[in-house]
Write a structure and sequence with these properties.
Blueprint: E1 6-9, E2 12-15, H1 26-30, E3 33-35, E4 38-42, E5 48-51, H2 53-67, H3 75-88, E6 94-102, E7 117-124, H4 131-137, E8 139-147, H5 165-176, E9 181-185, E10 191-194, E11 198-203, E12 206-209, H6 219-230, E13 234-237, H7 242-246, E14 250-255, E15 259-266, E16 269-270, H8 282-295, E17 307-309
Helix pairs in contact: 2-3, 6-8
């Protein structure tokens, strides 16, 4: 994982060594930060482009608003900042991490009436989030013993740093037990998502994905739904249970980091039937291929503004 040596911090490109924050930073103590995960891809025609950059920056703005704060930068400024950071690091293909956080100030839970929201953008080279084996052969998942927080316990529509602690401990549990990722249930026992991915299953030709109740409105999720419907598949947003997932014909995860990752098993039950059990299914693999083409500018029928050139 090669990290970029230049970081955008509060409007300036600095070296990684210069981009420092105080130990009195409120977000370090109380999790008062929000972030995004974005990817840039090398393009078929040359150069690089960032996929659905504006939508990601708009969601960052929303996450900060959900926390009750305001950004000092507009979405347009953040879009340009991301491009500047990629250029400063000479990356055409990379992972982009904007981070907005409450900086140095009062160190009680209350950060003050008008706290300063600092913004940093970092980039690094990152391969398959769940590993090449997961991408090619499918990931092994475990239903976590930890629940996705209730919608009135955590602000589930924001990518807020404090909210990810449940995912951190759930993923540690899964990996320590030999799995690749954890799936979270809501307080009523319905499936929600992974620790950093949205969930889809396929049964009898119908694609189901968990509805937007307690899950993040994933941008890759939205993209996948459009690609699937373009193929003529029925896509339904609905609640479903773990036993329904166990009996799926196939299942997969989506996310900026995970892209499209097939699921080979859940709780040691192979997903799929017959010779196909435990292997990536045709819907998953076709979607994975289409997504890889889309983000590299090979599917011109989709909106041109989904790809912001790095130039």
């Amino acid at each position: 994982m090669a990290r970029g040596s230049k970081i955008w911090l509060n409007g300036k490109i600095l070296s990684a060594e210069e981009a420092k924050i105080s130990l009195f930073t409120h977000a370090l103590h109380y999790g008062t930060g929000a972030f995004e995960g974005i990817r840039a891809y090398s393009q078929k025609k040359g150069g690089g482009a960032v996929f659905r950059l504006r939508e990601h920056m708009a969601r960052l703005e929303d996450s900060v608003k959900i926390m009750g704060f305001e950004l000092a930068f507009t979405v347009d400024q953040l879009v340009q900042a991301a491009i500047e950071t990629c250029k400063a690091n000479s990356f055409n293909e990379c992972y982009i991490r904007p981070l907005a956080f409450i900086g140095d100030g009062p160190l009680g839970v209350f950060p003050g009436a008008n706290p300063t929201v600092e913004v940093a953008i970092m980039v690094w080279e990152w391969g398959s989030y769940l590993g090449d084996k997961g991408i090619n052969e499918g990931a092994k998942l475990k239903i976590s013993t930890y629940l996705r927080p209730h919608v009135n316990s955590a602000m589930t529509k924001g990518k807020i740093t404090a909210g990810y602690i449940t995912g951190v401990i759930a993923k540690r549990e899964a990996i320590q037990q030999g799995y690749d990722e954890a799936l979270m249930l809501d307080p009523e026992g319905y499936l929600t998502e992974g620790t950093g991915e949205n969930l889809f299953m396929v049964k009898d030709g119908v694609v189901k994905t968990t509805q937007l109740t307690s899950i993040l409105n994933g941008i890759t999720r939205n993209t996948a739904m459009q690609l699937l419907r373009k193929k003529g598949l029925t896509v339904v947003e609905t609640r479903f249970t773990r036993d329904e997932l166990y009996t799926a014909d196939e299942a997969f995860l989506t996310g900026t980091a995970a892209e499209v990752t097939p699921i080979s098993s859940v709780d040691n039950r192979k997903i799929g039937h017959g010779d196909q059990a435990g292997k990536p299914g045709p819907v998953s693999m076709s979607l994975q291929q289409d997504y890889a083409k889309l983000v590299r500018g090979e599917l011109p029928e989709y909106p041109a503004e989904w790809l912001t050139p790095i130039r």
